[in-house]
Design goal:
This protein is an alpha/beta fold. The chain has three domains: about 50 residues, Alpha-Beta Plaits, CATH 3.30.70; about 70 residues, Met-10+ protein-like domains (GMP Synthetase, Chain A, domain 3, 2-Layer Sandwich), CATH 3.30.300; about 160 residues, Vaccinia Virus protein VP39 (Rossmann fold, 3-Layer(aba) Sandwich), CATH 3.40.50.150. About 25% of the residues lie in helices and about 30% in strands. The longest helix is centred in the middle third of the chain and has 13 residues.
């Protein structure tokens, strides 16, 4: 498929031009790397290179939502979570009713705040359907009991969780530092031959739901740990692999984690991945352990100029 290669700093300007000229293929996801943005287009525009690229199709949006300009939403179990722009607040009930037409949605909530606080929770406002915050979310055959008001859960990381599980070698021990209700831990348990997985979270509600999810999925090699990850990882000791899925604050934990993991999966939300890599490399002068960055990859788009990345670090 034809793609337009644009320097990142010019991305928004070019996007508006493409929309104005009706050249942007809206059914496909825009690609990004550390330097360029790649737009799926019908044809190019002067001043920018075009070439053949592969673009991922967007998840289908119900036709009834297109007229509102709502292009994305999350579904956790049978609960839909939607960001409603300020200019559409007076039509939020209509948007909610449109979402209720999509299976398996039985309840619709509006995202009111970003993830915040020590327990990583966010505020939602009920818009329509059942007045409930608890649901069962299914992912690759696993069932996760989730309460959106009590814990953080990101349904968009399902593929990433499976990628990590398939990296785990037989007999490995794993530390999942910010486990939530256990999606990474349970995925590793199901799709690898890990010996033991330590699942840490400081939120007691998350650990309680994790225990229920272990019972629901009949998992026996995941050990729930309630507490501060900085303290608990030192009690657990060194493991073969550490998962650090706390993208906004991961760096502050890394100096200590480098002492306790052979392989570290470090997640960050960033507009400058090379800058983040250099920041990590700078720790060589601070910590008494040698390490190297094995690879990095884009996990998903976060905003027009921010991506979620995974950086894999080896201390072996």
């Amino acid at each position: 498929m034809r793609g337009l290669k644009v320097p990142k700093q010019e991305g928004e300007k070019v996007r508006q031009i493409l929309i104005l000229k009706n050249l942007l293929l809206s059914g496909y996801k825009i690609k990004r790397d550390e330097t360029f943005i790649y737009f799926p287009v019908k044809k190019g525009i002067p001043g920018y290179d075009t070439a053949e690229y592969s673009f991922e199709k967007k998840r289908a949006t119900p036709d009834s939502l297109k007229g509102f300009g709502i292009s994305s939403f999350d579904i956790v179990g049978d609960i839909a979570l939607v960001d409603v722009p300020e200019e559409l607040q007076d039509r939020r009930k209509e948007i909610a009713e449109a979402l209720l037409t999509r299976k398996p949605v039985h309840a619709v909530f509006q995202k009111v705040s970003k993830v915040q606080g020590e327990f990583r929770t966010r505020t939602f406002q009920h818009l329509s359907g059942e007045r409930k915050s608890e649901t069962i979310h299914t992912e690759y055959g696993l069932k996760f009991k989730v309460d959106i008001n009590k814990v953080y859960f990101n349904p968009r990381l399902a593929t990433e969780r499976l990628r990590i599980a398939k990296k785990v070698m037989p007999g490995e021990t794993v530390t999942d530092m910010f486990c939530g209700v256990g999606p990474f831990s349970l995925m590793i348990s199901k799709f690898s031959e890990a010996e033991k997985i330590y699942a840490i979270d400081i939120n007691p509600e998350a650990i309680q739901l994790l225990r229920e999810n272990l019972r629901i999925n009949k998992v026996g090699n995941v050990i729930p740990v309630l507490g501060d990850a900085k303290e608990e990882i030192s009690k657990i000791g060194r493991t073969n692999r550490v998962i650090m899925n706390l993208p906004q604050k991961t760096f502050e934990f890394l100096p200590q984690v480098l002492l306790y993991g052979d392989i570290i999966h470090y997640y960050t939300i960033n507009s400058d991945i090379q800058g983040e890599i250099e920041r990590i490399k700078g720790l060589q002068h601070i910590v008494d352990v040698s390490f190297e960055i094995v690879e990095y990859r884009t996990v998903k788009s976060y905003s027009p100029d921010m991506e979620m990345y995974r950086i894999d670090i080896s201390t072996g």
